[in-house]
Amino acid sequence: MKIALLGYGKMGKMIEQTAISRNHEIIAKIDNEFTAGDIKNADVAIDFSIPSAAFNNITTCFKNGIPVISGTTGWLDKYDEAIACCKKNNGAFIYASNFSLGVNIFFQLNAYLAQMMSGLKEYQIGMEEIHHTQKLDAPSGTAITLAEGIIKNTSKTGWKLDHAGEHEIPIVAKRIENVPGTHSIRYSSKVDDIEITHTAHNREGFALGAVIAAEWIIGKTGIFDMKDVLNLR
Ligand SMILES: NC(=O)C1=CN([C@@H]2O[C@H](COP(=O)(O)OP(=O)(O)OC[C@H]3O[C@@H](n4cnc5c(N)ncnc54)[C@H](OP(=O)(O)O)[C@@H]3O)[C@@H](O)[C@H]2O)C=CC1
Ligand SMILES: O=C(O)C1=N[C@H](C(=O)O)C[C@H](O)C1
């Protein structure tokens, strides 16, 4: 598989290592604006760039018939527009706020726990995410996906950073040197706490998930997610 890496930072470099170890070829390493010519030989593009560049990168690929795996977070105000562009060009797309197998299992666990807790008024919910200090967005994309899983299964209607209203999930975002990504959801009552946590030890799980998604999407058309790739439905 010939891969164009859109974003050659911490994740782009990790994905390169993983892809090569699985016998794929990196045909472009892009850290800035690019033209169709730069990516024309790619079977698939993997975008781990920056929030302000993701939409343009992704839609350029669709317009040039290249399937896209998108891991960049913080650009989802333009998600619907990206989907419309993908459909118009008969393209193929997977966005995931987190590509690791562990977090995708954690998403299911979070939804199940939220369902169990939904009627229990004595428990107050709270979420915390911790990431390295270079992270541009807050809360993390993973925290937003977790909040959406809780909203779907409880009477909560939204989320907010720090001071949330009664019907919102409060999210605390901490930035600490070198932390790859930790997410916790806590249900607290006067007598006890129930807490689930996912801790990434490094970026290898994110990279492997993205490469597996790229392998999976070849030859397909449509909009998919990691539940499709990992058979978690
Ligand atoms: N979904 C998931 O599983 C995961 C998602 N992420 C997300 O992936 C993104 C990247 O993370 P990370 O690698 O740690 O960040 P880095 O800052 O290390 O890398 C981002 C790279 O994108 C480059 N860049 C800047 N502008 C463009 C452009 N127009 N087109 C392509 N690349 C560009 C930057 O170049 P320069 O430095 O020169 O500006 C930089 O090299 C973030 O949004 C992060 O939240 C991260 C881990 C897992
Ligand atoms: O920026 C990061 O590093 C990460 N970003 C993703 C997110 O915003 O959830 C995934 C992972 O937590 C690492």
UniProtKB/TrEMBL annotation:
InterPro entries: DapB_C (IPR022663), DapB_N (IPR000846), DHDPR_bac (IPR023940), NAD(P)-bd_dom_sf (IPR036291). It is an enzyme of class 1 (oxidoreductase). (S)-2,3,4,5-tetrahydrodipicolinate binds at H132, G141, T142. CDD domains: DHDPR_N. Its EC number is 1.17.1.8. NAD(+) binds at D31, G71, T72, T73, A96, S97, N98, F99. Coiled coil: none annotated. It catalyses: (S)-2,3,4,5-tetrahydrodipicolinate + NADP(+) + H2O = (2S,4S)-4-hydroxy-2,3,4,5-tetrahydrodipicolinate + NADPH + H(+); (S)-2,3,4,5-tetrahydrodipicolinate + NAD(+) + H2O = (2S,4S)-4-hydroxy-2,3,4,5-tetrahydrodipicolinate + NADH + H(+). Pfam families: DapB_C (PF05173), DapB_N (PF01113). The keyword Cytoplasm applies. One of its GO terms (molecular function) is NADP binding. Keywords: Amino-acid biosynthesis, Cytoplasm, Diaminopimelate biosynthesis, Lysine biosynthesis, NAD, NADP, Oxidoreductase. Belongs to the DapB family. NCBIfam families: dapB (TIGR00036). Homotetramer. This is 4-hydroxy-tetrahydrodipicolinate reductase. The gene is dapB.
